[in-house]
Write a structure and sequence with these properties.
Layout lengths: L7 E6 L5 H11 L3 E6 L5 H9 L1 H17 L8 E5 L6 H10 L4 E6 L17 E4 L2 H6 L3 E2 L7 H6 L8 E8 L2 H13 L5 E6 L2 H9 L9 E2 L5 H9 L1 E6 L10 H8 L3 E4 L3 H5 L6 E3 L6 H7 L12 H9 L1
Parallel strand pairs: 1-2, 1-3, 3-4, 4-5, 5-6, 7-8, 7-10, 8-9, 10-11, 11-12
Helix pairs in contact: 2-3
Amino acid sequence: MENLKNKNIIFIAPVFYDYHNQIIDHLNRKGANVTFFPERRTNLFYRFYYKFSNKLLNRYQKKYYETIAQNINHDVVDYLFVIRGCQMPNEFIAFMKLKYPSIICIMYQWDSEKSNNFIHLKDCFDKLFTFDINDSIQYSLKYLPLFYTDDLKTICNVKKEVYKYDFFSLSLYTYERYLIVSNLSVLLKNYNVFFQLYIPYTRYLKEMLMGRKLSKKILIFNPLNRSQYLSKLEESKVVIDITHTIQSGLPIRIIESLAAGKTIISTNQLIVKEFNSLGNVFVLTDSTNFKNILYDSKSESQINENYSLDKWLDVMFL
């Protein structure tokens, strides 16, 4: 993309697995000069404020973004690129526009407004995209699904006759997910499954104190790293996705699984609308016939390159 050659980009995003580094790498390949700042400090103060005081959290984040502003010393900044932007104050955007009058401000939301309040920043950005279809309609935002990274191509090229796991599901713990996964574990007891929900141990203790008796068989207290996750994905034939009920967008694990050529069973109704041309996507219902899905799954269909990270960036920076 020629329009990014020698352009200076201030990139602010969550430090989540290795996605921020992969995005930086792709922008660098396009010729851009990228300066990255995490959207927040992951320290004890932040965790305390997050749990106990939204007012203190906003104040803490405001000071943090003031620190970011002080550390931007470029003569020219062409783009401010923000993913999510946890508790980002309007004043920070105003500062950037005042200091760099020609700057183009782009925001992408991979959380819903209900999870991460961002709509107060809508008028501050020149371009605002969201993965959440309902948010895009309600707030007149541009809908843009998430992406897959280059490491998924390797998995797709590996053809297996026998898989270690018939069904695979890995996600962050919510009690609703726990109930669904528990029921699926019983329903699919005659199959080889890998079902795990990541829950911090402090959250586990809190749930137990609330009287929720949780089986550790489907819980893990340390998240899988990227290589472990990809290894489990490669060894699995069918992926089961249980989308959080407060969002309507497609999680990145759906995009990645389809890029890896896997069959997907999801609680998210959007999957069949977004990928209606693929024969390996199914909506999870009480009547889902797992045996037939497993039998028919040949792991041959995959989404096209329009969902790649490279194309995802092209859409926002065109």
